[in-house]
Design brief:
mainly alpha; 87% helix
Length: 84
């Protein structure tokens, strides 16, 4: 990945953002640049989606733990009532 960035940087005359003329001169660099942007976007999108999922699942786990405690309490009371 670092080699690709160095190659892009050297081909773009030390500019960070390439121009359309640069893309016309070297379409391979254009394709690599667009691919890099797409991969970066997908990485950020995936990370934000996973963060939201983790938050949602943590809330669900807490709710299920509470439900489990309530059901366990009721079950124990039922068993005590049957043993009497």
């Amino acid at each position: 990945m670092l080699a690709i960035l160095k190659f892009l940087f050297s081909k773009l005359n030390h500019r960070i953002i390439p121009t359309f003329k640069d893309f016309l001169k070297n379409p391979v660099v254009a394709l690599l640049f667009m691919s890099l942007l797409a991969v970066g976007y997908l990485y950020i999108d995936n990370r934000s989606t996973l963060t939201k999922q983790i938050t949602t699942l943590q809330k669900q786990v807490q709710d299920l733990q509470k439900d489990y405690k309530d059901l366990d309490k009721e079950f124990r009371q039922t068993l005590k009532g049957l043993n009497k």
